[in-house]
Amino acid sequence: ISHGCMGVAARGCGIVGLEPVRVAEILKDRTSWQRNCRQSTRLYSINTGSNATLTTLAPARDFCTLRYTNLLEDGSYVICEGSLNSTHGVPIAPQMQSFVRAEMLPSGYLVRPCEQSGSIIIIVDHMDLESWT
């Protein structure tokens, strides 16, 4: 879906037979479901439901991101993620040796309860895989 923007973007929607809380927990563990994710390390947590994470992908890229998870009144989960850099005023991880620090542009998931059972997941991934540093 990358039309006239930097980087590459993708979106998707699907239904799974898991409750939203379980889907949100799985999405937080990127190495368990994204086959080209070599490692994902939580650097620190903030009491607002945010985590700074260092993620290393197989195509020699790493990202230092901030992920925010919020539970809505209707039982939906919103998970937002984007790259951190030194201008955000928070500590960031050093770049992994032999990897290029890429940028995760605003990305995330909406996990809504499905009327029957399970969840509807809407995904938007947007990243620039060129060197960011």
Reconstruct the topology from this structure.
Layout: E1 8-16, H1 20-28, E2 37-46, E3 50-57, E4 61-71, E5 77-83, E6 100-101, E7 103-104, E8 107-113, E9 119-128
Parallel strand pairs: 4-6
Antiparallel strand pairs: 1-9, 2-3, 3-4, 4-5, 5-8, 7-9, 8-9
Short description:
The protein is mainly beta and 133 residues long. The chain has one helix at residues 20-28; strands at 8-16, 37-46, 50-57, 61-71, 77-83, 100-101, 103-104, 107-113, 119-128. Strands 1, 2, 3, 4, 5, 6, 7, 8 and 9 form a 9-stranded mixed β-sheet that branches.
Strand content: over 45%
Report the average pLDDT across residues: 79
Low-confidence stretches: none
C-alpha geometry: globular
* Radius of gyration, whole Å: 15 Å
> Biggest sheet: strands, sense, closure?
9 strands, mixed
Listing every helix as H and every strand as E from the N terminus to the C terminus, the arrangement reads EHEEEEEEEE
Q: Helix proportion of residues, in percent?
A: under 10%
Number of strands: 9
Distance linking N and C termini: 25 Å
- Overall SS class: mainly beta
Number of helical stretches of at least 4 residues: 1
What features would you highlight for this structure?
single chain, 133 residues, mainly beta
Structure description:
This protein has 133 residues and is mainly beta. Helices cover 7% and strands 50% of the residues. It has one helix at 20-28; strands at 8-16, 37-46, 50-57, 61-71, 77-83, 100-101, 103-104, 107-113, 119-128. A hairpin with a 3-residue loop joins β3 (50-57) and β4. The longest helix has 9 residues, at 20-28. The model has no long low-confidence stretch (mean pLDDT 79).
